[in-house]
Structures are given as C-alpha cells and as structure tokens.
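## tool: complex_structure
## caller: assistant
## args:
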Amino acid sequence: MNGFRKQYSISDYPSITKEFIKWLGFSLVIGTLVGIASAALLVSLNWSTNYREAHKVIIWLLPIGGLFVGLLYHYYGQSVAKGNNQLLEELNTPKDIIPFKMAPLIFLGTVVSHLFGASVGREGTAVQIGGAIADQFSGWFKMNKHDRRIIILMGISSGFAGLFGTPLAGAVFALEVLLIGKIKYNAILPCLLVAVVSNYVSREVSHYLHVPHTHYHIDAVPKLNTLNFFWCIFAGILFGIVSTFFSKGVKFFSQFSKYIKYPPLRPVIGGTAMAVLIYFIGTKYIGLGIPTILESFNTTMNTYDFAIKIILTTFCIAFGFKGGEVTPLFFIGATLGSALSMFVPLPISLLAGMGFVAVFSGATNTPIACTLMGIELFGMEGGVYIAIACVTAYIFSGHTGIYTSQIVGVAKT
Amino acid sequence: MNGFRKQYSISDYPSITKEFIKWLGFSLVIGTLVGIASAALLVSLNWSTNYREAHKVIIWLLPIGGLFVGLLYHYYGQSVAKGNNQLLEELNTPKDIIPFKMAPLIFLGTVVSHLFGASVGREGTAVQIGGAIADQFSGWFKMNKHDRRIIILMGISSGFAGLFGTPLAGAVFALEVLLIGKIKYNAILPCLLVAVVSNYVSREVSHYLHVPHTHYHIDAVPKLNTLNFFWCIFAGILFGIVSTFFSKGVKFFSQFSKYIKYPPLRPVIGGTAMAVLIYFIGTKYIGLGIPTILESFNTTMNTYDFAIKIILTTFCIAFGFKGGEVTPLFFIGATLGSALSMFVPLPISLLAGMGFVAVFSGATNTPIACTLMGIELFGMEGGVYIAIACVTAYIFSGHTGIYTSQIVGVAKT
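## result:
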C-alpha cells in the first residue's frame, strides 16, 4: 500500500506551488500543440470523408491505399507500429522516448484509410499524436520516470479531449486506461488542465475552419423507476457482452492476416476484400459512420447493423488499416442501443446514447471516463442511466479489452 | 502492483453473473433501507430547523441539548463515537462489525444539535447511518473481509446519495474517500447500484412527505477563454487553501475542549458559548444554513461569512455536537465563491457553485466525486469550471483533510 499518514503542514506549499506552475506551463504548451493537431485531424478527416462520399468510385482504390499505409509503416514505422499499446507499455515499463514520427505516420495512415473507405476510427490517431508530441518534452527536459509518465498521460488526455470535445472524459480516460480496476491521482491536475486547453484550442481552430464537433442529443429521459432500472441494467449487460466480441474479432481476423508474411500486402488483400464487400452492401458501414450514429438517436436501426460494423472494423484493423476503434465502438453501441428500442421500453435516443458510451466502456475498461463522456455529450439528464450502463458493461466485459497492454490492477470480481 | 495479465474467457461469465446478482440483491435491500433512513433524516432536520426558526428562544437551551448529546454518547455511544473515521478505520483494518446503535445515536444527536442551533452538517450522519445499516448484513451473512469492505462502502455511498440526491457523486465518494490519491474499482458496481436505489427511495419518500431536496441553480456560464481559465484556477487555489483551515480549526478547538475532562460537559460549555455568540451575531451562521447557501448564488456575500462559519462549525464539532462537516463546507465554499465575485470577473452563481463543491473537494480529497456532485446539482454547463476548481482545490489542500483516518495512497506531488 505504501501509504503514509497524512501530515498537516504549511511547509508543503512551496513544493506544491512549484509543481503546479510546472504542470500548468506544460499544459498550456502541450494542450495548444495537441489541440491544433486534433483540429487538423478533424478537418482532414472531414475533407477525406466528404471527398469519398462525393467520389465513391475511389473505394475501388482501397487496396492501393492499403498498400501505401502498409509500405509506410513497413519502411518508416516499425518502431511506432504498436500504436496505443506502445503508449501503455511505455507507461507500465518505461524504456525509450516515443519517436515523434508516430504522430505524422498515424495522421497520414488514418487520413488515407478514411479517404479510400476503410472502417476505422480516429481516437487511436489522436491519442498517439498527443502521446508522441508530449513525450518529446520528456526528452528535451530530461525528465525522470515519474514526470515522464505524467507527460505521456497528458498526451493521451489532450488527444482524446481535443478530438471528441470532452475534456473531463479525456482527463479521466488517461487516468483509467492504464490499469484495469485502479487509478492513481498524481496526474489528475496536469491531465485535466491539458485536456481543457486542448479542447479549447481544438474547438476554436475547427470552428474557425467551419468543421465543428458533432452534436448528439438525447431528447427524452424518463423518470427512473424500478422497471427502467432493470431495463437499464439489462441493456448494460448486453453492451458489455457485445464489447467483448470486438476484442475477439480483432484477434480472430489477425490469425488470417498473419498468413500473409509480407505485412504491406495485408491491407492490399484486406482492402480488396473490403472494396468488393462494400460494392454489395453499400457505404453505410465504412469510415467513421457519423451519419448513421446520428440517425440511431432518431430511428430504430436494424438488429444486424452493429454486428456488421464489428466484423468490418475488426477486419480492417487486423489487416493493417489505421485510425483506432473508438468511433466504430460508438457506432456499434449506438446502433445496438437503437435496435434494442424494439423491445426495451426506453426512448430510442436514450438507448442509443447509453450504447454509444457503454460499449466503449466495456471495450476499454474506463467506466468513469465513459460516464463523464456521456454527460459531456448528452447532458446530465440521462446521467444515471448512462452511469449504470457504462459500469454494468464494464463488469460484463470481463478482463478483456481492445488494449492488450492494459494490466489488471484489481480484479473485477 | 499485483497485476496479472488479463485473459479472454467465456468461462468468467458464471462467476461474474453470480457476483452481479448477489450485489444487485444487496443493493436493492440496503438501498431501500438507507434511502428511507435518509428521507427520515431530511424530514427530521427540516422539522427541527423550522421549529428552531419559529422559536428562536430555544437556542438558549443549546447547553441542555449539548448535555443530552454528551450524555448519550458517554453512556451509550463510546463504541461508535469516532463516527466517519470509524468507518474508514474498519475499511482499512477490519476488526469488528459496526454496532447498529451508531445509526440511531447519530440520528438523535444530529437532530438535537440542529434543533437547538449548533452549526453542524448532516452528511456524517447519513454516512454513519448507511454504514451501520449496511454492516449488519456482513454479520448476518458471515461475509469475508473483501465482501464486508464492499458492504461498508455501499453504506457510505447510499447514505451520501440518499441525503444529497446525487447518486453518481455518492458512488464515487465511497470509492475515493478511503485512500488519498488512489481508487480501486472492485466496488464500483455495488456502490453505484445502491446509490441509485437509495436516491430513488429517498426522493420518493421525501417527496411524499413534502420535503423535497434543495435545488441550486447556476444561471450563467461564460464561454471558457484564457482569462476565465486562469481566474478559475485562482479560485480553485483559494478554495483549496480555505479547506485546510477547516481541518486545522477542528484540531485547534479540540485542544481547548480536551481541558474539560468529563466529555458530556464539553457540549454544555460549547453550547453556552455558542448561545451567547448567536445572541450577538444572529442566526445566520447556525444549523445547515441552506437559505444562506441559496442566497450566495444570487447575492454577493460578505468576505467574512465563510470565516465565521469555519470558526463556528469547527468549534461545535470540537465541542461534541453531531452531524458532520459537509453542509457547512458547502456554506463556506458558496459564500466564499460568492464574495469572490467582487473582484473575480465570473458570474456570481458560477463562483458560488464552484466553491460549494471545491472546498468540499479540498477538505475530503475526493475531486472526482465533487466534480460529479457539481454536475448533478448544477448541470453540465459549468462542468469544466467545476472540475478545474475541484481538482485545483484538491491539490492545494495538501495531505490534509477532515477525515483523519484517511491514508495517503499516492502522494499528490
């Protein structure tokens, strides 16, 4: 436990103040840089998505896009290919400063993946850009392990916050993601301040460039009663179980992609299969899928939508496309929640919102961050429903998750 | 670290499900009982406050009320006199089941303290009632240490949630309060479910008895910009520093009360001093002070209001009156925030709301619970301001706090 009894002492203030000013300074600098990078990512993804939607024929070039991403990482990115897991590993057992090239490589890889229609996300990108930018400072300032850990967490926090426009969730996500079942607070202030700065800068820049953050809206929240309480738990259990399919899916498809010995060929083969598939099933399930996520809040989605998105996204990730898993997890949760409205007597927008964050909670084991994210995106009205769904999904996802480098700090049961 | 790598396994589900049903069952039973008790406390305090306001002459009987409380604890309550700290000690080093009489004794002690006009709170009462009720189940079901720990946390969570009407804050408060700087998640689901149930029951019962929870309202939240960001941090630092005065105040006055060797005499002497003081300064600073807290959201309060409340409350607690510190901490924070509006260019209601939760955060070292409480009470609009204030206050309160049995899990800096 390493616990020491607390002391009452005025003499703590000089050291508290010094530390505070240090982290405030880093928050302003790193938050600004990562905020600008997050806005650039949002704007670039907006451009590539619009271009693809206007020129759907480009999807046939997905194998070429895949080849580009594959060669890029094979020849320049071997040292940064592990992405989010690499950040977690550096946090758990620090070794080397994360190469700065992680940031431009993942940026480029993600924009190309989206331009040609892969089914991937964008949070991995933001978190890696944040982590790579932030960790340069630990090199420049020759930081010790303890401070470097805080700096990397600040990178994660600011990337998350800048991308999704959710500073509180970003800060708590960085604290929660490292260890399943346990968080430590020594980075809480730096993570919060940098998230607020990054979110502010990202909002200002993307607003200036006319690419605002998406607004989601839960339009009806019924009074909690015994029946709703149990339905909410039921939905949370489903969200948790579904989130495990996602982690399993990546593992499943990786078995196949590993038969292709030359890694740059993997996204070529994967991209070909995707392009043919998209030709038959249409473009609903590719890219970020924001329009479908928004639609889930108003219209009952098909019961199979979430399943198709799981298959396509885990396939794309296993075959080497870049971007991350979180926006697809939002898609999966929102469409599943929406479909549940067929037999769960809760409003469709509430179920979609609960699924949006709860599947993410189950897949990443970050229940408090996801609850905060739900409140930041949808408002406090549905807060209790969202919290129950996120925490129940967290419990029912077991000790699995999309980040294989997470370590179990405290067992769930 | 005791971390084991996570496993993927379907075979976890039977044990997860079994545990889940067990804790859901306890949540329903304990949540209902504690919810009813919380409502009873709210109603009784409402009655005693109204009675005192209508018959102010009763305040001269404060020494008699004090004698009653003193004798009560001296002859019947020696084994439960440590209150909240006793709960924390049982959590850290489990020894004996908490005697059930903790619940009726603290209930009676608190209502009498309020009836005659002591300056105390009510959260300690709710938490002790919750803990005492919950811990009986660990005896009846012969629970092991691990489960008993969860049960006591459920008692704390449900007491807090039922009293303040803030289930998310209640759940996280129970997880955060034990160790400074560290939380473990194995109780997260039971704590959340029991908090939701207790809050639901408490709301229904108190609504039925026409004693609704107080509604606070932040009516204007300016857009965050650089200047507001720094003002918010500045306010958070002040809130944190002021919160340490509270902990120091209890220590300071306890030196004097300890000169009175026969404990039941302490509240008699203390009550006499209070009654004389109140005769001169009026009744603004006694009891819970809800009207003044509400007024802080609209009207700029005096710069000395918070200081007087600190002195009176720490005096009353040191001299043996019962109830707890939290509502006085709300009073202190809200009036201080309100007074700050004289020179901090943020809206008065926002500053009052920030202070309300941030001084509490500094005094109890529970920044995430306090942020959630702020959002639950005031809505998400001011969420970022509230979070910065709570986290900054947490850092600037150092390793001090009102719960002397808290253990430092991870140092703040």
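## assistant note: Chain B is about 65% helix and 0% strand. The longest strand of chain B covers residues 182-184. Handing back to user.
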